[in-house]
TrEMBL record, chain A:
<feature type="transmembrane region" description="Helical">
    <location>
        <begin position="108"/>
        <end position="126"/>
    </location>
</feature>
<dbReference type="InterPro" id="IPR009936">
    <property type="entry name" value="DUF1468"/>
</dbReference>
<feature type="transmembrane region" description="Helical">
    <location>
        <begin position="12"/>
        <end position="31"/>
    </location>
</feature>
<protein>
    <submittedName>
        <fullName>Tripartite tricarboxylate transporter TctB family protein</fullName>
    </submittedName>
</protein>
<dbReference type="Pfam" id="PF07331">
    <property type="entry name" value="TctB"/>
</dbReference>
<feature type="domain" description="DUF1468">
    <location>
        <begin position="14"/>
        <end position="157"/>
    </location>
</feature>
<feature type="transmembrane region" description="Helical">
    <location>
        <begin position="43"/>
        <end position="61"/>
    </location>
</feature>
<keyword id="KW-0472">Membrane</keyword>
<keyword id="KW-1133">Transmembrane helix</keyword>
Automatic annotation (TrEMBL), chain B:
<feature type="transmembrane region" description="Helical">
    <location>
        <begin position="254"/>
        <end position="276"/>
    </location>
</feature>
<dbReference type="Pfam" id="PF01970">
    <property type="entry name" value="TctA"/>
</dbReference>
<protein>
    <submittedName>
        <fullName>C4-dicarboxylate ABC transporter permease</fullName>
    </submittedName>
</protein>
<feature type="transmembrane region" description="Helical">
    <location>
        <begin position="411"/>
        <end position="440"/>
    </location>
</feature>
<feature type="transmembrane region" description="Helical">
    <location>
        <begin position="20"/>
        <end position="43"/>
    </location>
</feature>
<feature type="transmembrane region" description="Helical">
    <location>
        <begin position="106"/>
        <end position="130"/>
    </location>
</feature>
<feature type="transmembrane region" description="Helical">
    <location>
        <begin position="163"/>
        <end position="182"/>
    </location>
</feature>
<feature type="transmembrane region" description="Helical">
    <location>
        <begin position="202"/>
        <end position="221"/>
    </location>
</feature>
<keyword id="KW-0472">Membrane</keyword>
Length: 163, 500
């Protein structure tokens, strides 16, 4: 019984081969740990995990090649379609905001960095106006502070940039 | 007997203990439900400020958090598709599709009652069969733990997703990630690339939050403009006919939960997955196909994971071996209070055993009460516009990860796993097997090596042991059956049989 296969997504073949490379790398690293000198050596299980990854990746690639190619609209290339489907503007902006937030967490401190992240992301995603973004980010940040800092006494970064 | 009863009722009659159990259960439900807050984390933080208390109030609070937290994880699994804890991974498979159909109220009501039933079965097993089950768990050799872990991984890999190959890849990737760090047997660095920072391994909680929280939030960005489904929470208490229909499945799943929970190292996560799988295989006519919002898909894992709570206490109290991560923390609490969990605990301090049984029973009742109330507030979470909800999930993920060991490096790991998990999801992979692989990987590795060393490093003798031991043989056959049942060959045989 042949299962119905969906269409191949843009970038899926490359992703499949990247997974295969990762599997081969894990297998090689497993071997490199101690040369697999005995069946109970430290490298055996990592190498086994790499082997399973490699064999599975080959099965995945075989399946990908059996799929019909993705429908690419006229005037758009595979690369553009890949970006449009996998990393639309919202995902790219939020990933960038997350990265900036994490980088700012220690120098700016938890409260400042979190407020900036919440305010900017709610303002961008919700598109409900400045006041909503301001109120929601202030209220939720206060609740998070009470739960983590006050209730669970979690030490949160206080920041050194504005000291 | 009268002494046992008075110890059993201690938490019921003392207002302070009653209040602490209630507060712990209430807090546990919310801790379990909030993505980024784990029961293990809460239990370990609680120990840090209850160590100066008497042992009973401290244990009452922690038991409440444990019982409530295991149940609470199902709420975020149903409402947000983000399991609050690994024990709720299986619940999300059918719970979230139910919420997408607007049936979050029924799903939560059913999971609450089934968790309550499962909790009771677990506690009854703890009270009645503790010594017998502990003896059975002692029969497990390292190779059996290996088989059990392989089974757990295969189960989660085959449960959903497009193909077994993708499930296997994800599981093996998780195992490889779980190997990162210093080898516990030889102290050799594995996948550390010469860096000291990697010797401690990759924090799996950061990976869990990244794979489940961040990748889900990023994936949700594709549906920003999708209309929000209003959840019907007008009827929370499930009808008697619905309960009667699922009672046998709930009891069956609870029995699985008790046994799996009692096995050292395996907790509610594997119990829930195994119960889900047995339901998938044994229920002939589910309310809907599994994975598309079958009631059976929430009844089985939720009964099992709460039954595993009582089960996890069995090896902890009788052998001093933790049944799962939370009981490992509780063992630490008992040591802090000068108690030595193990065979002597039940002889020297029998009151502690009966107090624990009574306390867990009370926490289970509170779980039912708190679980059936306040659902409207939770349902509102789903109706929150995604433009507000997604940033909140992301910030909770960051704070939750940072809180584990006050390290911003863990937060970077979390973002990395979140982005990787996002691409895995885009291409039809499940992220559950990766996280489970990370948790089970070290157990599989040490079990395999211990079994191999005990076979004198002889692969033939190693393989023979799987056939000569009846327990290993049963487990090995179960693993083989699990693999074969996922192959096209098996599907062909089934189709031919069905066609006559």
């Amino acid at each position: 019984m042949e299962q119905t296969l969906r269409r191949r997504q843009p970038g899926e073949t490359v992703f499949g081969y990247a997974l295969l490379l990762l599997g081969l790398f894990v297998m090689a690293e497993g071997y490199r740990i101690d040369g697999l000198y005995s069946p109970s050596s430290a490298g055996v299980f990592p190498a086994l995990a790499g082997l399973v990854m490699t064999v599975s990746a080959l099965a995945i690639i075989r399946r990908i090649h059996r799929m019909r190619p993705a429908h690419i609209p006229e005037g758009s290339g595979t690369a553009r379609e890949f970006v449009r489907r996998t990393t639309p503007a919202d995902v790219a902006v939020m990933a960038a905001l997350m990265l900036a937030y994490m980088l700012a967490l220690e120098p700016v401190g938890f409260l400042g960095a979190s407020f900036a992240f919440l305010f900017l992301s709610i303002f961008y995603l919700h598109r409900g106006g400045l006041l909503t973004a301001l109120l929601v980010s202030t209220g939720s940040l206060a609740a998070i502070w009470v739960v983590f800092r006050v209730l669970f006494t979690v030490v949160l970064p206080s920041g050194w940039l504005f000291r | 007997m009268s002494d046992s009863l008075s110890y059993f009722l201690m938490a019921w009659t003392d207002p302070q203990l009653l209040l602490l159990t209630a507060a712990g259960t209430f807090a546990g439900i919310y801790i379990g439900a909030i993505p980024g807050l784990s029961v293990t984390m809460a239990a370990s933080i609680l120990i840090s400020f209850t160590f100066s208390w008497d042992v009973n109030p401290a244990l009452a609070l922690i038991a409440g958090v444990f019982m409530g937290g295991v149940y609470g994880g199902s709420r975020s699994a149903i409402l947000l598709n983000i399991p609050g804890a690994p024990a709720a991974i299986a619940t999300a498979l059918d719970g979230f599709p139910l919420a997408k159909r607007g049936e979050a109220g029924v799903a939560i009501g059913l999971t609450t009652v089934c968790s309550f039933l499962g909790g009771f079965v677990g506690i009854a097993a703890l009270a009645i069969a503790a010594p017998a089950i502990s003896e059975f768990a002692l029969l497990f050799a390292p190779r059996d733990y290996l088989l059990l872990a392989v089974m757990g991984l295969l189960l989660v890999g085959s449960l959903s997703g497009e193909s077994l190959a993708k499930g296997l890849y994800a599981g093996a990737l998780g195992v490889a990630l779980g190997m990162v760090g210093m080898d516990p047997m030889t102290a050799e660095g594995r996948f550390t690339f010469g860096t000291v920072q990697l010797l401690g391994g990759i924090p799996y909680v950061a990976a869990m939050i990244g794979f489940f929280g961040v990748s889900e939030a990023l994936a949700q960005l594709h549906n920003l403009k999708a209309p929000r489904i209003k959840q019907d929470v007008s009827r929370i208490l499930p009808s008697w006919s619905l309960l009667r229909r699922y009672l046998p499945l709930s009891l069956r799943s609870s029995a699985i939960g008790v046994v799996i929970g009692a096995l050292p190292g395996t907790g509610g996560d594997i119990a829930a997955l195994m119960a889900y799988d047995q339901a998938k295989r044994t229920v002939k006519n589910p309310s809907r196909p599994f994975g598309e919002g079958a009631y059976e898909g929430v009844v089985a894992p939720e009964s099992a994971n709460n039954a595993a709570v009582g089960g996890a206490y069995i090896p902890m109290l009788t052998l001093g071996i933790p049944g799962d991560a939370v009981t490992a923390v509780i063992i630490g609490a008992l040591f802090i209070h000068g108690l030595k969990p193990g065979p002597m605990l039940m002889i020297e301090t029998p009151h502690l055993f009966w107090f624990t049984v009574g306390n867990l029973t009370l926490a289970n009742i509170f779980m039912l009460v708190f679980g059936l109330s306040g659902i409207r507030f939770f349902a509102k979470v789903v109706e929150t516009p995604p433009g507000i909800l997604i940033p909140l999930i992301l910030i909770l993920s960051v704070v939750g990860t940072y809180a584990i060991q006050n390290s911003v490096v863990d937060v970077y790991w979390m973002l990395g796993f979140g982005l990787f998990g996002y691409f895995l999801r885009i291409y039809g992979f499940q992220v559950g097997p990766v996280v489970l692989g990370m948790i089970l990987g070290p157990l599989m590795d040490t079990s395999y090596r211990r079994a191999m060393i005990s076979a004198g490093d002889d692969p033939v003798a190693f393989a023979q042991e799987f056939v000569t031991s009846p327990l290993s043989l049963v487990l090995a056959l179960a693993v083989a059956l699990l693999v074969i049942s996922q192959t096209p060959l098996w599907r062909g045989i089934r189709a031919r049989l069905a066609g006559g």
